[in-house]
Amino acid sequence: MYATANSSSFFSTLASSILPYVARTGSVSEQPVLGYKSKDIEIIKSLAIPDTADGIEVQLALRPVTEKSLDAQGWFEFHVYSIGDEGSWEEHCKGLVAARTDTAALPLAEKFSMNLVDYSKRQHPNNIFKSLQSKGINHEPSFQNLVSIHSGGNQPVASFSVADSAALMPAKFERPHLLHPITLNALLQSAYAALPANAQKSMGASIPRFIKSMFVPSTLSSTVGHRFQRFLFLDTQNSQGFDVSMATINEGETRSTPQIEINGLHYQSLGESIPAEQNPDVVGVCLKGRWQPDLLFLKPEDFTELLARDSDPAEDEMVVDLKRAAYHIIHDALVAITKADVDGLDDHHRSLYDWMQTQDRRASRKELAPKSARWSKASAGVKQLFYDNVSSASVNGRLLVRIGKALLPILRRDNSPTELI
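Given the sequence above, the corresponding structure tokens read:
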């Protein structure tokens, strides 16, 4: 039997073993240590821990950076190694770490909207774990601490609670720590929420490989049940993986300084999803028969039931985003159009204008969605997130945004839709 230790274990070891040493020797001033910053963290290989009394030997190496540049002052280089069965050492993780004493604002604070009204779409945390499980990435119940996930465009916010990790230890004894593996794992899990559903499906299993920079405060709460909120931003995505940034705060303190910041967290795609275990009842089966209705004997009304199919969740989500993006285009055009513009409308443009007013009223009466009455209060940044999301998701979305941005000139006869298609 083996257990696999991922990047969480490395950071936990880093926090509990070497950060106190870094604080004593790495500070270049007499100011108190506010926290610990790390950068260029490369996660090279997972660590397989045998379920035996001997376990596996792990070595943590730490040395000051020898470069003479000012940027290197106070930084330490760390490496995590293990020894294999044949006596060879294998490297699992490496990076740089230093104590932070300055009080300058963290660079990521301005990247996120801390207004919870901007996150109107709800996603159940169980969907994240089910999706990961279908790709071969499993989490024990003690590592499933996501409480809620809400999103707006490609910028979700997730809440998680600090687990009672001491209850899992022998004699319920746990040494003091800064960042527990379970807490860090919750941070890493939430990154998947930043991916659109269609991207999660096509990308398959993805694992963290690199972190550009990270900050953890020395006062981070480890109280059981304490809740954090983390705001995520999807920086880039393609078939090879995706990059996210995140800022974590104490839940309910939207105006507070972020507790944990991670910039440039890169997930590498492992290719197509790992297939789930086969049903033992069908292993080795070469031929299987199944009865189906004969089309020659079906009644016309039977075809409706025969051709019916369950909707694709990814398509449903895309349709919802298209509806929201279309509403913002309509609402902004109605706000900007003048009485002189309305008086000069052609007959077919007037019909379009009347329909736009109808949709705007339907949204205010919550007929387009349960919370559509609040859509008109969305900020320009949130609207742009929806435009970017639908443009990247489908041809329909790209066409909607392209023509929608010229809707007012079209009504004024300054532009023609055919020129935009």
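The chain has three domains: 1-104, 105-275, 313-420. Try to locate this feature in the token string yourself.
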